[in-house]
Amino acid sequence: MSDQIERLIAHYQKALLIKPDNTEVYSNLAELYYKRGQLDEAIAVYRCAIEVKPDAYQTYYRLGEILQELQRWPEAIYCYLQVISCYQEGLHVEQIFVDSYYKLIDIKNNCPLPEVINIYRQIIREKPDFYLPYLDLGDMLTQQGNLEEAISCYQTGSYKHLLSSHPDFAKNYLNPQNRREPNFLIVGIGKGGTSSLYYYLGKHPQILPAIRKEIHFFSENIERGLDWYLSHFPPIPKESNFLTGEATPWYFVSFESAKKIAHVFPDVKLIILLRNPIFRSFSHYQMQLRVGEEQRSFAEVISSEIKAIRNFSSPDEVDSDYWQTEKGCLLFSLYFYFIEKWMAVFPREQFLILRSEDFYANPAATLTQIFEFLGVPDYPLAEYPNYNPGSYNPISDDLRQTLAEFFRPHNQKLEEYLGIKFNWDE
User: Fold this and answer.
1) What is the pLDDT of residues 32-50, one digit of tens each?
2) Cα–Cα dist 50/420, whole Å
3) Which domains does the chain have, with CATH numbers?
4) 352 near 359, Cβ under 8 Å?
C-alpha cells in the first residue's frame, strides 16, 4: 500500500510540473500526504492549490479540517470563514457552507471565549481587509457585554465589505458617523425563500443591505440598544438614493416584534413571502431534524401538533405547554392570524405580500414588483441561484392530504382577509 501511495505521489508531482494550475491534482496529492500521516506536507500542498485558485472554497474547507485536527485554531477559523465568504459573495456552495458554519461553532464551543476572541483579533491583525472576522468578533464581544467595541467591529466589518463590493460608494459616500435606518424589512416567512430574495436584492446597485441577513433585533436582541442594531447597516447619507434593509423572517410570527418595529420605524416597508403551508411546514420540520431539535417522524409531529392547536383562534392562545413538545412547524404556517396582528399596527400600503411559488417560478418578475414597491429601477440578474436550498424526500400522499384538510379553512381566512388568491389547493 505504501509503495502504491509513493508511486501516486510521484505521478501527481510530475503532473504538476506539466500543468501547475490543476487544482484537482493538488487536492489528490494533498490527500495522499494526509493518508501517510504527513499533515504538514498536505497543508503545504493545499496552500499551493489556494494560490492557484483563491476562490476554491472546497480547498479551504478541507484545509480547515486538517488544521482543526491539529488544533491550529486561528488558521482553521480563517479557512472556514473563507468558505462562508464565498457563499455570501454569490457562489453556490450549498451544504459545505452550512458545514463550515457548524465547524466554527464547534471550535468556539471547545475553546474559552476569551481565547477565541484573541484568535479573532489575531486573524484581523493578519488579514485586516477581510470583513467576516469583524462580525464574529462583534458577536462575541456582544456576548461578553462589551457593546461599545462590538458596535465598532460591526461598523468596521460593514466598511471593509463595502470597500470590496461597492468601492465607488465607499470612496464617495461612506462616513462611519452616519446612521441609516432600514428602508425595508423582509419579515417572513421562515422557509419561504427569504435567503434567496435577500441576496438578489443585494445585487441591485442602489440597495446596500445589512452586513448580516438576520439580526433578530426586535425578537431577541432589543435590550442591546438601537445603536447596536444600526451598526449592522451601512452608513448611508440620508440625502443619497441608496436603500438598506435586513431579513429576519421569524419576526413574522412575533406580534411583540411587530409592535416594537412599528414604534421605532413606523414608516418602514415590509416584505412578506408566503409559501404553501404544507411545504413550508415540511421544510421547517426538516430544518429542526437537521439541527437535532426534532427526533420524531413527520407523521408524529403532524398528529401531535394538530391536536395541540386544532381549536385555537389566535397564536396568543398557545401556552408554554405547547412549546414543551412542539416546534412551530404547523403553527407558523397559519398565516392569517399573524398577518392580522401585523396589520393592526401597520397600514396595508406598507406591506408587499407575495407567493413564494411565484418567486420560485419567476424570480425576475417578483423582483420587478419588489423594486417598484421600494421605488428603485428594475434590475434583472443574469441568473438566480437558489440560496439555502433543502434536499429531502417528498411528503407522502396521505400526510399531504391530512395537511391540506387542516390548512384549508385557515388559508380561506387569509385569502378573504387580504383579497388575494393563493391557490394552494390546486
Assistant:
1) 999 999 999 999 999 999 9
2) 51
3) 2-166 (1.25.40.10), 184-418 (3.40.50.300)
4) no
